[in-house]
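Exam revision sheet. Question 4 asks you to relate a sequence to its structure. Input first:
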Amino acid sequence: MAIRDDIENLEDVITSVLLNHPELVLTEPLDLTLFDRRKAVIHAIVKLSGRGITPDIFTVSDELNDQSMVATLGHLQKDVFGSAKNYAHYLKSLRDKVTDVRMYQRLRDGMKAIADGTPAANVLGEIVTESMRLFTTAEHRQYSFTAKEMMKIMVEKLENTLDRSEEPDGIKTGIPKVDYILGTLHPSDLCIVGARPAVGKTAFGVSVALNVALAKKRVGIISTEMSVDQISFRFSAQMARIDAKKYRTAGFDELEWSRVAASTKTLSELDIRVCDKTVMKVSDVMLQCRAWAMDGGLDLVIVDYLTRVKADNATGNQNLDVGEIATQMKNLARDLKIPVIVLAQLNRGNANRGDQIPRMSDLRDSGIIEQEADSILLLHREEDDDGHQKNLIIVDKNRHGETMVAAVEFDGPTMRWWSDEVRDEQ
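Answer key, structure tokens:
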């Protein structure tokens, strides 16, 4: 098919443009599944850029561990012509042509299945399902959102259901007792926040993100577990002080609707970016954060959560893979000179202890995580002997100060973590 030749030519042109203008890798999302012959080269360019290394024929060859590629890459760089201004167009053309080929092949497979005796109705159902998948793949869906876009999605979701100034000393979480212990989040810090499922990891991330954004900072959120509309509900519930469950049915009374409207206006003006792609390699995370940093700057990144991010070169050893991801998250914080908060799951170790208080050794695949983290916060909620809820943030590692336990507040309906101000005498 001539279209296959077009695809090969486009792969070469895109590779040539990226070798000549490596900064363009930050401007458009790259779906590696679209590439065939140059897939390894494009992946190497993405990984190098994610680590802050400028891709060229030598660094790419080193990344591929194949010095024979120098000549091939040199040819692509010098002899294949493509315009940097047309880079987005080349990617769209490649996406469209690859989709055409995949759809053509699916139709051929369907015809063969019918010829082999499969009922046509069954084949048609499979083709429709495959067609929907092809036309809603990563490159056809938006994964990076501004705060205004996020609030627009939230408002649309609700409608469909119905038919501080700069701080030179670091970033404050907005939870005074935590800020008191940590002395704020410092540039280049990697902060791991661990908890068992349903304790409130995502709620903690949203609480901190909202506090930081309200202080006029720029926040990026990598959400591999929750979609942007779910995240938007969390933000609005905390901002409007409304039970988050009501967002599922839009069951607000008149006063609550006015509070939703007011919170939406405020949230839309905040500098928050959300990427809600479900499957992300660590190089994808680093690349997205660098793109945000280039597009207006970035003060804080929150990743939800650690073990849902995939290693670029999975070894099959979970401990090594998670350790590599933690190391890259620390590198990201250092390279961008911002704090990075990574949410993480705890294993069941604390359930087997008498006090059930979590420790940083309860972090899943914890070895390298403990080494790389500047601070480790463990969230714990339990009822005391009198039936009162205890909400603790255990600072189990603090490179900049003491390890302590902060008794804080957690509001279940709005899923908000907060605390009173710390008095001077404390």
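Marking note for examiners. Confidence is low (pLDDT under 50) at residues 164-168.
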